[in-house]
Amino acid sequence: MTARMEPDPERPNRFYLYVGDSEQSHVDLDDPLHLEFDYIRYLSYVVDSLAPSGEPLRVLHLGAGALTLPRYVAAKRPGSYQQAVDIDAELVALVREKAPLPKRGKVKVRIGDAREQLAAAPDDCYDVIVLDVFADNVTPPHLTTAEFFADVSRVLRTGGSLLMNAGDGGPLKYTRSLAATIGSVFGQGRLLGGTTVLRGRRFGNIVLCGSDRPFDDAAIARRAAGDVFPTGFLDGDEFARFGKGAPVNTDGGAVASPAPPGLWPQTGRGVRKRSSRGAARP
Q1: What is the CB neighbour count within 10 angstroms for residue 259?
Q2: Which pairs with CB-CB distance under 8 Å and at least 24 residues apart come from 14-21?
Q3: Could you give the angle at which helices 68-76 and 38-49 cross, rounded to 10 degrees?
Q4: Which residues contact 7 (CB under 8 A, 6 or more apart)?
Q5: What percent of the chain has pLDDT over 90?
């Protein structure tokens, strides 16, 4: 699919990234702390809770998009080392041209398949691994299995965290299997999503997290409660109940995520007129 970046009609230094007809991401070159889309905000709530304010992190982003979250981490945690991986060289070149990264940020971008690049990474290398990969609007099945998440665990440092963005709707069968699979590898699991998505009323983004240490539930729940849209948060016990009984994905039987009805849901709509310093912001 052809990627393009279009300026926000309200603020020309903000851009929307499209792949085909699907609105994939948003970036604010003037304010990297402004996060337009709900799933990026959910990811930021967890990242912000993982270490004291301003402490640098080593972050691997599997899926580059508009490099919105890497910009956020670089702004909030100067000195962080980040690497982003994306299989689409043309998309990466477009983002670099239209929305170049600040030179002071330590963000390297590598072209390649997410799982292959992960396999090449050394043990105990990153504090955070963010998985946000979509191909034709679905998550490839080889990035959703117990074998893949075991390799994520290998590359994470002790106490490190996996953060994954997924799309689902209805009874959330796909997400429940993801929760069961992440739970089979990591001792701790958490989940964030719009309340209407978690209640099966619409298709949308869900963020799942895994780690070998407990998360700061109070900090994440507080940020989720302040989001501009009603947001649900499942703690460790709720996460375990959510995935209980669901099949664990394996390399031999995993399937792609469900395709969204029509175009990719533009869940960021309605946030555009909200100030980046509002309640949902850091």
Answers
A1: 12
A2: 15/66, 15/98, 15/99, 17/65, 17/66, 17/91, 17/95, 19/91, 21/263
A3: 30
A4: 13, 14, 15, 16
A5: 80
Q: Is the pLDDT of residue 256 over 50?
A: yes
Q: Which CATH number fits domain 37-243: 3.40.50.150, 3.20.20.30, 3.40.50.720, 1.20.120.1760?
A: 3.40.50.150
Kind of pairing, strands 156-168 and 204-211? antiparallel
Measured CA to CA, the distance from residue 170 to residue 206 in angstroms comes to 13
Q: Quick one: tokens of 176?
A: 């429940």
CA–CA separation, 229 and 87 (whole Å): 32
User: Strands across the sheet with 3-7, in order?
Assistant: 3-7, 14-19, 22-28
Which is it for the CA torsion 189, 81, 103, 76, positive or negative? positive
E-only strand ranges, 74-131:
81-86, 106-111, 126-131
Extents of the domains making up the chain: 37-243
E strand or H helix at 217:
helix 217-225
Per-residue pLDDT tens over the stretch 198-250: 999 999 999 999 999 999 999 999 999 999 999 999 999 999 999 999 999 99
Give the span between the Cα atoms of 203 and 31, in whole angstroms.
Answer: 29
Identify the sign of the CA torsion 176, 182, 183, 185: positive
Mean pLDDT of the chain: 90
Query: For residue 1, what pLDDT is reported?
Result: 63
pLDDT for 100-153, tens place per residue?
998 777 899 999 999 999 999 999 999 999 999 988 888 999 999 999 999 999
Sign of the Cα torsion 272, 14, 61, 106 reads negative
